Amino acid sequence: MSLQSFINEAISPWMQEDGPDNDIVMSTRVRLARNFSNVPFPLTANKEKLSVVSNTLKTHFENQSFEQYENLEFFSMEQMQALEKRVLVEKHLISPHLVEKDLESGVLISNNEQVSLMINEEDHIRLQLYFPGLQLDRGLKEAFRFDDWLEEKINYAFEEKRGYLTSCPTNAGTGLRASVMMHLPALTLTRKMSKMIPAINQLGLVVRGMYGEGSEALGNIYQISNQITLGRSEQDIIEDLQSVVEKMIERERFARKMLVEQSALRLEDRIFRSYGTLKYSRIMESKEAATCLSDLRLGIDVGYIDHLSKTILNELMVLTQPGFLQQYAKETLNAQQRDIRRASIIRERLSLEKG
Fold first, then answer.
1. Does residue 212 have a known ligand-binding role?
2. Bridging pattern class, strands 125-132 and 25-34
3. Is 89 labeled as ligand-binding?
4. What is the pLDDT of residues 68-89, one digit of tens each?
5. I want to staple 185 with a disulfide (CB 3.0 to 4.6 A). Which of 27, 70, 220, 265 is the partner?
6. Three-state secondary structure along 46-60?
7. Is 355 annotated as a binding residue?
């Protein structure tokens, strides 16, 4: 599969599947940080040392398959265009940090885009697995099995007392970062989310925007993940995150119920105003689009809108990102041109489902 085939399709195959609690939980990600035992970490390694890592991974795993994760394909950061990198970031297949690391850096991506293996980012290996809905237990099990498959060819940097050694101390121990992407419009509208975030942080978890650290929670989409990896088992980390996410799901559903019961007309008006804006606007900035798309998805979930697909939020949150807009236009666009193109794509997508 060529790079073009990855970036032509906004929605990865796994995202089109149903998952548990997918009215609120958009996706689950499990990431493992690993390093070679006999190579300096990327922060200090020279090109020659880093090439040992990239060549080893390419030699043993390029075009290989592990169960349903088929045909891992390698893409070099050095050989990719800036727009291609941006699109892969928007699909969450690589991190913004990897984009800046040209030296012997790359990524292995499975055919179904459910697995991406970032090479020579902050660590030698950042293994990521994605699942639709809330599937933390499954995600951990699958990550362990994939990790075992990698370890058949790689000796990891590991100590009995400290666990897996990583560039950043916050990742040492298990090397595990588990995260859940949640759509929480009712908690945001009722201003309860801002009160919940400090309490979540006190539990050793962190709340970020859609694209992780430093990103804004556009479209009422929040990424919740663990902060602590050292001194705790992987199962403990997963169970704590699962518990918090389940409570947030419960509160979001209750908040939606209260909005429908107590502010039905105002809520319905908000949703259909946003729907109208999406259907007829000719210019649309990214923040406005994200807000309106969030309202539209809420309208679908509470039953006000019954002729649109639930995947529309997932699709358009990706399709309307700057990289995809320019990929679709096949040219570089300035900010105003992107706003015009964004509005056009949204109108085109909505026209596919008549109501």
1. yes
2. antiparallel
3. no
4. 999 999 999 999 999 999 989 9
5. 220
6. CHHHHHHHHHHHHHH
7. no
